[in-house]
Amino acid sequence: INAEYGGASCGSMEAAPAEQPSRPAPDDGRLSLRLHCENVAEEPVIEHMTEEWYRMSISQECSVSQWRPNKDRLKTLHAILAICLNIGTDPPDANKVSPCSRTQCWSDPFSMDPQKALEQVGKNLQSQYERWQSKCDFKQCLDPTLETIKHNALLVRRKAKHDRVLFHYNGHGVPKPTHNGEIWVFNKNYTQYIPLSMTELQSWLGSPVVYVLDCSAAGNVIDHLIKHHDETTREPSSSHRDSCIVLAASGVDQSLPNHVELPADLFTSCLSTPIQIALKWYCWQQKGVMLIDPELVDNLPGAFSDRKTPLGELNWIFTAVTDTIAWNVLDFKMFHELFRQDLLLASLFRNFLLAERIFSSLGSPVCSWPRLPGTAHHPMWEAWDRSVDICLSRLGDAKQCQTLPASLGSSNSYFSEQLTAFEVWLEYGSESKQPPEQLPVVLQVLLSQVHRARALFLLARFLDMGSFAVNLALSVGIFPYVLKLLPSTQAPELRQVPVFIWTCLLYTSDAADEEDSVDLGGRRIIKKKKKKRNETNICSTRNKTYTIYKYRIDKCYI
Fold it and tell me: Would you state the pLDDT for residue 198?
């Protein structure tokens, strides 16, 4: 199989014999993938095998275990929302200045009855989390007592079994956590603050668990959590960093930022409503520089699921930006543990990168376990700011003309610019140079009909560079994208490209499950999987050909 694009050829695969003619090149000059048949003597049949097996010549063994997801993938389908506000009564160590931020979950708790306001905050927070994981079962603990926390923690762990549990703690109405690793709740009469040891809470919740601590001095409890986790597991925390995860709004003895134009629960807003708070913070940063209608920011038209609308497009760009930042600064193992295993956890960490940027600009850095490298000044944030600026500018112009649309089409040039940058890297990059930082963006646009053709051809060129390129693509998470594209690509001029990408993966990686493959004498032998209903076999030896999702590659050793 040869790929031709600007003179680049598939150097990692065996060239076809010189006497074998190739298919004529298209007259329009577009990129085409050409299939070459090769007449090779038949391999001897392994008689003792009771099942049908398939062979692929493997020229070199590439270790790509870091990209492979765990077979027992953790999911976060149970959560506790502990909201300690005690509306109307400030804790004794509160140092509020007037005016101060008041909103909690984008509602003003002082504009209604305290009990109704507390219920509204809990309802809003749950709906914000359901945006990221709609199947999650939430237990709201509104101004909870110690007994309420214990009862719900044991109940949630019993239901979750071995899955991950989310514990979200809003401590804006209670004192700061102590240096002994204690957070605060209430007594039954709401006359006293009762300490709750995090080690005790950890024993109720078990593991795996992810804590979101939105309170001042949240860093006081992290060391106690990690120490207790290491003692219970009796293994280093580095090997179980995905079992106990902490996202904290402040460091040791640090207070939360307080700005009247930003929400009081700024950390929660960053984690649960990143687009809204990113726009709000951007307008706050640009105050006096550009005139932006606040109503336009609060009511951005569109839907998250529709990428042609301003809201959906910004959410798509935000996902690409944060994935790119994480892939470039984290090691592959941590990237897959935090960004590719659990839907809710991946969303939390993407949004946490935004929280780190906003809080760093306010002089109050956030902290986490596992600890992440600093990303607040990553160059990709400049591309995000430019995308926000373009979106708000065009919406502002449309509103002045009183023709505010629900869709602006492909008005943002972010993805086309990133593909151009990736194409430049393909011209001058190599295995010895820095990997292309735009690779996660390329995978994002594979599912977009607007940029899919260009992204497929560029990705094919990249994988054609050798095993290092395949391993980089696998580390980003190319596998599920290709599985979706193989049966769904209908355009005749594009059908061969996903097949070529798939063969690159099979050629230079152990893409098949280890249970379904063995290595005999330098050859990867892949066992045939049973054909399920409405499913096409990945490989078939019928008529001595390889068939990949209905596409035929005649006797080609890959």
Answer: 92
Structure tokens at 240: 């179980």
The two tokens of residue 432 are 């010895």
Max Cα-Cα span within the chain:
91
For position 504, what pLDDT does the model report? Answer: 82
> CB count, 10 Å around CB of 195?
16
Residue with token string 């207070």: 255
pLDDT at position 125: 97
Measured over the CA atoms of residue 496, residue 497, residue 502 and residue 506, the dihedral's sign is positive
Q: How far apart are CA 366 and CA 134, in angstroms?
A: 27
| Pair 143, 84: CB distance under 8 Å | yes
pLDDT mean by block of 10 residues, the chain; 558 residues: 34 37 39 36 33 29 47 85 93 79 92 94 96 95 97 96 96 94 94 94 93 95 79 54 86 90 94 94 76 73 86 93 96 90 94 96 93 94 92 73 52 88 94 92 86 91 90 87 76 81 72 40 40 40 35 35
CB neighbourhood size of 404 (10 A): 16
Alpha helices in 429-495 (DSSP H): 439-445, 452-463, 467-476, 478-488
Query: CA nearest 217: which of 167, 173, 175?
Result: 175
**pLDDT at residue 492, as a whole number:** 75
β partners of residue 368: 247
Here the tokens at position 261 are 């134009």
Handedness of CA 306, 307, 311, 317 (dihedral sign): positive
Let me know: does 141 contact 81? Beta carbons within 8 Å. Answer: yes
Tokens of 420: 């151009």
Token couple for 347: 């969303």
Q: How long, in residues, is the chain?
A: 558
Do 455 and 436 form a contact (C-beta atoms < 8 A)?
no
- CA neighbor of 123 nearest in space, from 272, 306, 266: 272
- What's the CA gap between 196 and 349, in Å, rounded? 26
pLDDT score for 490 = 67
Within 10 angstroms of residue 75's Cβ, the number of other Cβ atoms is 17
Omega within 30 of 0 (cis) for the link into 370: yes
pLDDT at 74: 84
Phi and psi at residue 275, to the nearest 5°: -65, -45
